[in-house]
Amino acid sequence: MSDATQSGPVLAADGTPLKRSLARALRAQKMRALMLIAPLLIFILVAFIAPIVDMLFRSVENQIVSETLPRTVVGLQDWDPTDLPSDDVFAALAYDFIEATERRRHTRLGSRLNYETTGISSLFRQSGRSVDEIGEEYTAQFVELNAAWETPATWVALMAPADWITAEAAWAERFAVVADAARIATQAVAEADEASVGQAAAAAAVARAEASRVELEQPVFRLSVAAQEVLPETSDAYRSFARTIQQVDEETPTAEVPWNTVYLALYRDLSALDVSGYNGPMADLLIEADAAVETFEGLTPREAWGEVNDGWLDLDNWATIEAFSDPFTAGYFLSAVDLQLTPDGIEAQPEEQRIYILLFKRTIIMSMAITLMCVFLGYPIAYLLSNLPSRTSNLLLILVLLPFWTSLLVRTSAWKVLLQQQGVINDLLVWVGLVADGSRLALINNQVGTIIAMTHILLPFMILPLFSVMKTIPPTYVRAAKSLGATNFTAFRRVYFPQSVPGIGAGCILVFILSIGYYITPELVGGRTGTFISNRIAYHISSSLNWGLAAALGTILLVLVLALYWAYDRIVGIDNVKLG
Amino acid sequence: MTSDESQAFVAFDRVQKSYDGEVLVVKDLNLHIGRGEFLTMLGPSGSGKTTCLMMLAGFETATHGDITLDGKPINNIPPHKRGIGMVFQNYALFPHMTVGENLSFPLEVRGIGKSLREEKIIRALDMVQMGDFINRRPAQLSGGQQQRIALSRALVFEPELVLMDEPLGALDKQLRETLQFEITNLAHQLGITTVYVTHDQTEALTMSDRVAVFDDGRIQQLAAPDKLYEEPENSFVAQFIGENNTLQGTVSKIDADMCEVTLDDGSIIDALPVNVTTVGEKTQVSIRPERVEMDPSRLTPGAHTLKAEVLEFVYMGDIYRTRLRVAGREDFIIKTRNAPDQRRLTPGESIEIGWRPTDCRALDA
Ligand SMILES: Nc1ncnc2c1ncn2[C@@H]1O[C@H](COP(=O)(O)OP(=O)(O)OP(=O)(O)O)[C@@H](O)[C@H]1O
Ligand SMILES: [Mg+2]
After folding, report:
1. pLDDT tens per residue across span A272-301
2. Residues of B at the A interface (Cβ-Cβ below 8 Å)?
3. If we measure between CA atoms, which residue out of B154, B122, B119 comes closest to residue B135?
4. Closest listed residue to residue A545, CA positions, set A114, A208, A103, A224
5. Is the CB of residue B112 less than 8 Å from the CB of residue B192?
6. Whole-number Å distance between alpha carbons of B71 and B74
7. How many CB atoms sit inside 10 A of residue A277's CB?
8. Is there a contact between A485 and B59 if contact means CB atoms under 8 Å apart?
């Protein structure tokens, strides 16, 4: 009896369980196999899997809103959509918007939101020009009260902790020295004679590089704990200002007067809070201002925004911002299937904007047509090839592959020449008399053109798997069928054809998947009615720059292909696919 | 069971075949097969056996000559109307059909009704003891089982003629022997005419009514197995069928049924003239190992004997096989039965051998 019938694990000669020693023996083999495929694996991960994952991610990603308008998004969380947001939200918008403008992010956000509600793009662009005016009346009143409010040093003392101030001062000193050296070196280059100009230029470059290195080392602005406690909104606004100045303008906050929005924040803090207990830096100045703000006059944030652009008093725009304030959104996917996310829920797009469902349908139907054409044209050829002696069949196979030797673009362009109304085929038909000169056939810039050209281009992908499968069907099967009494046709239908089905399956999958994502040929010969979904994806990638929508369309395409693949597996069985 | 031309079921008449227009693969084939006969084509590889079978089945056309089936020229009948059952070397069972479907195929194309079909299929499967396998696919069967199915598929539509092209070539010896027996039994039971191709001579001898030995596109001899073995008509057949000792010599004396041959070393032996007619002719004499006698007393008095030296003695169980040096050749074999009183030779021993003249055939050189 064999060991397998004993109870307990089977043991190897040295007493270790057989499974474990087998696993150990196989591990080395597996490692070697892994090493062999490692370069390809890494390449695929980097060049194929990663982009696909990134694409999938982009189709739902929507961080731009919450990243550009972080305070506004938080403020909108408990907003009643039937009314305009509160002043707090408008103030938050001011703090967010001025930073976004300085960092030149507001137009990007505008374009993003414009995919959802047209007109937002220009609202954002125009607002960017005058957002810095928000709060200016408060600035004026603070300065009038005490000119110290106009000096950057006041603000730094009030906001920053002592250690940051020291670090910043040390940096400024070094920076001045290096910058000076760089300036002198540059000047030397300008004045140097031709012989030594190279040398001087090199020295200048070194000096400038040193200067920029020092710049990078500028200590990032920090708030003091006291400032954060006593003036929460102001300190937040000031930090936003200080860091933007440091990072965007490469300047130091110690030399810049804050934005008007910071004064607005200060006004709001002082009106709302009691600062009498404060005894940190600039306490006197602050307490003086606290007493005075009651008399200040100015616009509320909402009014100020209304001045900037009355688009901000439009509920629809706020609804859009609110709807897309989540870091993830289904919006792209909804657009990709002709739906949209409105404040009232999901709705169909307006009739004239519904294009994607149509395009998906068209892509699938035309791909199927192309696949069928390839089967009908390719099957007899593959059959013929597989029954020829191998010398002849190899020669003919080269002819089948010949199209691959010329560029896809050239072939497609050739079809343009052949198929146009004044092209070779129409000329021939007219000459033969099949078609009247006045009614030449439209063979290009429509679906017919796409199907003809793509069938031609994809035909080898059908013929090759068919050929290699047919090659493995021994002729004795058909002979056997005939000897058993089957006519030629029956022998083909009942015996040969079923055995060639795996080849048809492989060819169909190849051709269908290739054609469903095809781009160049439909673009060139498809005209308006013969383009595929991929042309739309390309348009969003390169022209409209709506990458999220492109990614969503791509993801849907991917899912469609996988679903079809799955269905194929269920119906035909993927084991029935043979490439040779 | 030789049949004359008029009642032959299958007849090849001066048939020639060339594939490429340069070489004749089949040269002047004349063969008449009687109804119910089991005829085997035996020959070395490339001798044209399969080609003959394919011409009969209709997958190749004869370049020249006529083939008739039941008196009708076969050329005008397409393969599927010939009603010839065929068993291929690689079985050619349709891989995408179950055993049942494979057997059903020839019946379906003949338009036979479902119930009759099932009955015939079951009968055909039972004939080869494969009734339990009706729902298996060919890939799930062993080689011998596939062979049985191929056989029952070729028989299920009750053809009058069955062609088998090396049907047992891929099987091991034991299985081959079992199936050889089954095939001959079935063929005789059902009264089918069978043309069987093989290059295994034992198979040919044990199964057939007649054997056609092919070589170089010609039938070298067409005869019943015993006749073929014992009375080969030329040296090719003598060499090809069974083990044979050959000696080269020249005819030195010849009568109607006896001749003397002087071997190359000068010794003289008696032989039956088969392909020699005149004194001085070169000849090759052939004698079966089991017909060589070591005991001169068993020979006709006065018969010529030869001196021989024992080179090797091999014990093979049922027989002893001894290699001798005879007339300068070292490949002379004798076989003796393992009987209680049988003499065991030892290498180096010198003995005297001889044979009855009728067992030693003087053939073409
Ligand atoms: N389709 C073909 N085209 C050209 N030559 C062929 C073809 N089929 C067979 N031949 C040649 O004809 C000769 C006889 O072939 P055939 O198949 O009849 O031999 P066979 O006796 O069946 O040999 P084996 O025992 O090896 O099967 C061979 O020399 C072979 O090369
Ligand atoms: Mg053969």
Report:
1. 888 888 888 888 888 888 888 888 888 899
2. 57-59, 79-86, 88, 90, 92, 94-96, 105-106, 109-110, 153-154, 157, 163
3. B122
4. A114
5. no
6. 9
7. 9
8. no
Mutate to test the pocket of ligand 1, among B51, B90, B203 (most ligand atoms within 8 A of CB): B51
Q: Which of B51, B77, B89, B96 to mutate to test the interface with A (most CBs of A within 10 A)?
A: B96
Four-way CATH pick for B243-363: 2.40.50.100, 3.40.50.1980, 2.60.40.1120, 3.40.50.300: 2.40.50.100
Burial class, A431, CB count within 10 angstroms (exposed 0-12 / middle 13-18 / buried 19+): exposed
Q: Which atom of ligand 1 is nearest to the CA of B52?
A: 18
Contact between residue B217 and residue B24 where contact means Cβ atoms under 8 Å apart: yes
- Listed in sequence order, the residues at least 6 apart from B199 whose beta carbon sits closer than 8 Å to its beta carbon are B42, B43, B44, B45, B49, B166
Answer yes or no: are the C-beta atoms of B283 and B275 closer than 8 Å: yes
Fold of B5-234: Rossmann fold (3.40.50)
Q: Please tell me the predicted confidence (pLDDT) of residue A340.
A: 83
**How far, in Å, are A147, A452, A571, B200, B230 from residue B223 at the CA level?**
134, 66, 58, 16, 11
> What residue segments make up the domains of chain B, in order of their start?
5-234, 243-363
Contact partners, residue A435, CB within 8 Å, separation at least 6: A426, A429, A441
Q: Which residues pair with B262 in a beta bridge?
A: B250, B268
3 state DSSP class of B253: strand
Residue nearest to atom 28 of ligand 1 (CA): B46
Tokens of A3: 């060991």
- Nearest-CA residue for ligand 1 atom 3 is B19
Length of chain B in residues, anyone? 365
Which chain B residues touch A477 with a CB distance below 8 Å? 92, 94
B59 CB neighbours in chain A (<8 A) are 479, 482
A195 or B131, which is more confident: B131
Say which amino acid occupies A194. E
Q: Sheet harboring B210-215: ordered strands across?
A: B84-87, B161-165, B193-198, B38-42, B210-215, B218-223
Q: Which member of B80, B82, B86 has the closest CB to residue A486?
A: B80
The residue contributing the CA closest to ligand 1 atom 1 is B19
Ligand 1 contacts (CB < 6 A) are B 19-20, 25, 43, 45-51, 199
Which ipTM did the prediction report?
0.80
Alpha carbon separation from A489 to A376, A472, B78, B80, B96 (Å, rounded): 17, 20, 13, 11, 18
At residue A155, what is the residue type? W
Specify the ligand 1 atom closest to the Cα of B217.
Answer: 14
Specify the pLDDT at position A213.
Answer: 61
* Residues from chain A contacting residue B110 (CB–CB below 8 Å): 485
Tokens of B132: 């339990």
CA pseudo-torsion sign B290, B291, B296, B298: positive
Cβ A486–B92 below 8 Å, yes or no?
no
DSSP reduced 3-state for A96? helix
In terms of DSSP bridges, do strands B319-326 and B282-287 run parallel, antiparallel, or are they unpaired? unpaired
- From the CA of B90, how many Å to the nearest CA of chain A? 8
Interface test with B, best of A479, A484, A488, A501 (most B CBs within 10 A): A484
> Amino acid identity of B270?
D
Helix (H, G, I), strand (E, B) or coil at A160: coil
- Nearest residue (by CA) to ligand 1, atom 27, is B45
Residues of chain A with pLDDT under 50: 1-5
Please indicate whether, in this complex, the C-beta atoms of A482 and B84 are within 8 angstroms of each other: no
| pLDDT tens-digit series, residues A492-513 | 999 999 999 888 988 998 899 8
